[in-house]
Amino acid sequence: MAAIVGYREDPELFARALGSYKSVKECRFVLVGVDGNEVPDMEMVQVFQNVSLSLPTCPTSLTNHEQTFPDHSAVIQVEKPLGELAMQTFEKLSTLDGNIHSSEMYSQTTIEHCCQLAREILSEYDLRLGQPDGVKHLCLFQPHLHKKGIMFTTFIFSIVIAEMIGVEYLWSSDSDTLVLPDSLQSTVETLAGDPTVGGGSSGLIVHNENDSLPAKLGSVVYWSELYMTRSTSTSSGTSDCQSGPSSAFRISALPAVLYPWYTQTILGHRMIVNEDRHLTTNLLMRGWTVTYVSDTLAATDTPTTMSRWIMQQVRWSRAGHIESFQQPRVYLLNNPLFFWAAIKREFGPLLGLLYILYYLFTGKSFAYFNWYDVGIRVSYTLLYNYTRNPDRGPSHSWFWVIPGLLFYNIPLPMIHLWSLITVFQDGWGTSMRATAELSKRGQAWKRWNDLGFFVVWMGVVGGTAARMAATHLGWTDEGVFLAIVWGICIPAAVSLYGLVICE
To answer: Which Gene3D superfamilies match (predicted)?
Structure first.
């Protein structure tokens, strides 16, 4: 079965996402979870009900069309998020018992209670689940909480529905993801082929690469850099992150991990934005293997502006920091290559940042650097992806690969540092794509708070590049100093105007 979650998604994009499931192989049930019960949130429910899958292209209008799932469909309102009910249940159990060593037992009882609540809610409707004429497409919505909240509720209902209809595997995706005909089947087949595998995720491509220049460059990053990064950790035999847009789970593995995943705290701070990585960590800590099905693809949406891209990368990087350091025991349970991939991911960008700062202030290098190495890296990136990646790459990828690598790697060191400094910030960073959300443009001071670090970093990069060029040309010390000043001021001013003031 498939579960799709979202909050105030762009209606046309959501309609395309739902429409993509029409051609999916071996999907017996589709469950949609909407986080929100206000008027703007009902737009997603309306898409579920009103947009026809039989049309060749999804219309922008949401009226006067056949239903998305004209037969065997239903909509259910969940009065209170099950995640919050789970926390109340756990607290009551621990208060009554008082045995702190029984948290595992409390978690199990809590999940069983939530599943029973889901059964009672389902029993209120004549759904005939598992019957030939029963509901096969269900949409549920609840009061707005956060992505983790709607995922928890959807997972609980998925466990119950899977038991009723007799399925073993769950595909989980976002409301902006388009699945391909074999996305679900090929990913699940990889899980089914090994009883030790608790979860996996497919590769990703970008379906909106032609929307803007940042989207085009982002698609190159997915094609080249991220594909190789994921492959590095997977060479150890397991993956450290299931991608939210394209994940699959062995349903029997979920009950034990859902409560500790939902209630994760770091130094007393509740974590709510690293849902994908922490779910993977919980599976690994319980002995499950997590796979990266690199030969299978799904299509996701990438930010169309530079500011949204940066804030997305910051959010992802925060999750990476938390999961890399919170459970060091996970490295003892896996191949040493798994640890090497984590070390490379965590300390590589920081070393790059120190290298740039040291050269800017001293004019000297503390590490070896050679442009031939850069050329070799670009060459093997192209060769590896052209020969190994099932995605043939964005159009004219040979032209875009170097700009794409610069687009990703230049901001990376400062994104890495800033996300480490602000690791406990819970904001999503980017607004949702629904009309009501896009109109909420942040004030200049708020945008400076979100993106000021990038403005400063562009000044540092510009000053470093200016110093490198002036030194190479043999300028005097005074000339080098002036070059650094102008190199700092111009890129910083341009990025300040473009990202904070105008965009």
So the answer is: Spore Coat Polysaccharide Biosynthesis Protein SpsA, Chain A
